[in-house]
Write a structure and sequence with these properties.
Layout: H1 2-8, E1 80-81, E2 86-87, E3 120-123, E4 134-137, E5 142-145, E6 149-159, E7 162-170, E8 178-187, E9 190-197, E10 204-211, H2 218-225, E11 234-239, E12 252-259, E13 264-271, E14 274-278, E15 282-283, E16 290-299, E17 302-311
Antiparallel strand pairs: 1-2, 3-6, 4-5, 5-17, 6-16, 7-12, 7-17, 8-9, 8-16, 9-10, 10-11, 12-13, 13-14, 13-15
The structure holds calcium ion (4 copies).
The site of one calcium ion (CA) has 7 residues, from loops.
Length: 314
């Protein structure tokens, strides 16, 4: 919904879009279940319209969270499991979604047990109409972009602190385009992007912070492709100083670690077991969580496989 809001009803350039979001988590205050706390995931375990991040009692059992031995499962009598140091009712399954913690991608989020990009939106940052060139398969853990066009796929689920893993593979000998991932997506005007070019002279991996006054437009697309920061569109946060490009038919594992509390972000890229690209821990002042996705410009036959997400509780 956030995306449609931004694309179909662009906000005039004169209005600071952040005035609508006091806590800058991408949720409009009127719809935000914690308007003073950045909680992009909007979790509300007991469905009382007070988000977990600002609800003192997330399970409505009258034991406040800080004293509750199962804060997401109603257990008024607080029976303790001595072996686990938690309440009996949540000793193996903290959020009560019937997936044990060790198998649960987000053990403190009952709405999320495994990543699934089956539900998503697609948009073109250049503002052109989107075409159905994307396919999602493998229970939402594999995404393929078949044709060469400029578009971004964004999963519907928003995350706060998270580790996002994907293996990117160009299944072709053709093309010199850009491949990458998107994170902290709040709207088509506010997101982060990791882009990796193949061709020189501007090859190499770059991480950008998008804060666009226009949203999808030729200006935004040009700014994303620009080797410099472009005011009112996109800032470069980090560039790989080694300027490595990617190769056809080679698998690269991307690991993004995102901390919404400390606003730290980090990317590592592996080829086999070699850590070929490693950013330092970057401070990203506006990172407050958001949705995850994939990007490719001027490149077809791109595969994102082994998609995996782990919520981090820091
Ligand atoms: Ca909020
Ligand atoms: Ca609540
Ligand atoms: Ca409670
Ligand atoms: Ca669980």
């Amino acid at each position: 919904m956030q995306l449609e809001f931004s694309i179909r009803n662009p906000i005039p350039n004169t209005i600071n879009i952040f005035l609508l979001f006091r806590d800058r988590d991408g949720i409009q205050d009127s719809e935000d279940n914690c308007p003073h706390v950045a909680n992009a995931a909007q979790l509300d375990n007991d469905s009382d319209k007070q988000g977990d991040s600002c609800d003192r009692d997330d399970d409505n059992d009258f034991v406040i969270d800080i004293h509750d031995n199962c804060p997401l499962i109603s257990n008024r009598y607080q029976k303790l499991s001595a072996a686990h140091g938690r309440g009996e009712e949540c000793k193996h399954d903290f959020d009560g979604d019937e997936v044990k913690d060790k198998n649960d991608a987000c053990p403190r989020d009952a709405t999320m047990t495994a990543v699934d990009f089956g539900k998503h939106v697609i948009f073109r940052p250049d503002g052109e109409p989107t075409q159905a060139f994307w396919r999602v398969q493998g229970q939402g853990r594999e995404v393929r972009k078949q044709q060469n066009n400029n578009s971004i796929l964004i999963g519907n689920k928003a995350f706060e602190s998270v580790e996002f893993n994907s293996t990117i593979y160009v299944d072709s000998d053709a093309g010199q385009g850009t491949i990458g991932v998107v994170f902290g997506f709040q709207s088509a005007k506010v997101f982060y992007i990791v882009m990796w070019k193949k061709a020189s002279p501007n090859n190499g991996l770059v991480m950008k912070e998008v804060k666009s006054t226009t949203g999808p437009s030729q200006d935004l697309y040009n700014a994303l492709q620009n080797a410099q920061s472009v005011s009112r569109q996109a800032n470069i946060l980090w560039e790989d100083p080694k300027n490595l490009g990617w190769d056809h038919r080679t698998a690269y594992k991307f690991v993004l670690t995102l901390n919404s509390a400390r606003k730290n972000i980090r990317v590592n890229v592996y080829k086999g077991s070699d850590n070929i690209i490693s950013s330092p821990e970057l401070y990203a002042g506006m990172y407050r969580g958001g949705r995850l996705g994939m990007v490719s410009f001027n490149q077809g036959d791109v595969l994102w496989t082994a998609l995996d997400v782990k919520c981090l509780h820091l």
